[in-house]
Amino acid sequence: MEHKIFVKNVGKISFGTMLSRIFGYIRDMLVAYFFGTGVFADAFYVAFKVPNLFRRVFGEGSFSVAFMPVFCEYLHIKDKNETQKFLNIVFTALFIILFMISVFGVFFAPTFARIIAWGFTDDTEKIQLTIDLIRLMFPFILFICLAAFLLAILNTLYSFFIPALAPSMLSFSEIFYMLTVAPLFVSKSQIKGLAVSIIVGSILHFFVQYLKLKSLGWHLKFMLDLKHPGIKKIAVLMLPSLVGLSADQINAFVDNICATLISRGAVSALYYSNRVMQLPLAIFGLAFAAVSLTSMSKAYAQKDIDALKSSLNYSIRFINFTLFPAAAGLMTIGLPIIKFLFEHGKFSCAGSIMTNNALFYYSLGLPAYASVKIFANAFYSFQDTKTPIKTSIWAMILHIFLCMIMIRLMDVGGLALATALSSYFNFMLLVIYLRKRIGRFGLRLIIFSSCKSFISSIITAIVAWDVCKVSDNLFVSVPVAIVLSLAAFIISSYILKSDELKILKSTFVR
Does residue 345 come out as left (phi exceeding 0), alpha (psi in the -120 to 50 range) or beta? Predict the structure, then answer.
């Protein structure tokens, strides 16, 4: 029964995320239509990486993994008034920090641009556009990080659907802008207007979740107390994780700098390939990561280590069950999918080939990306943020080394392969450290279950490849190939008596 509740909560996140990603892909298709993989798109996506860096720190990254276990502890130990006070104090401190960072970012936009877009420095117009876009988008972090704060609260309160759906507000704002306002301007003004629409979307993202929070009987107001023990505890947990997050961002910066040195369109190709890969990762991998952190934090607060191990084991088995076939499908018919999604307007066939080159190798690492999140969450749940740092730093060193070698051999695909291989390395280190920390957690069962999923995924890839060759019309062949390959995976999993399929079936029946 516990597993069925677990899957039900994951299903809420997956459904909300799927709806949000649909809006996201409509947005990406419109951006691809208007700007392709040219100068404006490259400048936009490079500029967007700067506020996203701070979003990873004070949003879904270091702050969330430090905040959620502490908030969970308050929920189970303190009364509601004390917990409400804790939320207000954290909200106030976070607001002040984010506001200061927003102002700081606007003033130092030229410095950020020259660091992250090193390859643009020879093009005066391109680097200036990047600076302008950074300045326009930096206030984005204020509301998007506060929205991530609300997401952490709502997930800890076992509210999953609205937080998963809320990011669609960002896409909705951009879609509305591109369909109604953008055609009135020329290209440079169009891309700047798109940056402004992101700010509007982040505000909507925040307020949609705040309405849900109020409906659950909680609210937020300004209350400053930097000496509150909860603030101190979050700060202590955040400091080590900031180092680990820095490793992730250094990886992103290395990829970005290398991409700016390859050829025009490489930055955009990395972005679009990452977006396609992120769909199954978000719907399944990150959904399980979100629920597992809540579940494992609760188990640790209640000193139930067996329940923690059970959540960990089940999460890993299920993400392999869902992401193995996703990876197989993307690696097999990635090019038709990219052409189907993006090859319209200014997005060329050459752009599709470059994007697929990166997508193939990104997809290879799909199970590793999610597994790293799950295992890191296990450490975060018992408030150990140091161990994931050690593994991420070693993985970062390997990533940089691989990028230096593979960019010369494989162009943009080498950057994606370096990311995949370093993620598998990080995953293996986390497994070793966790085994030493909590003992056995059912690794044999994970391997046995994953072998079944792997066999079914091979069948999935064969069916997808064969079906996609039947018709040259992508609007027919791609959807049919996806549906039939999914059916092949379900049938083969049924024949192999997959436990995950049985639980999925019983959950949907309920």
Answer: left
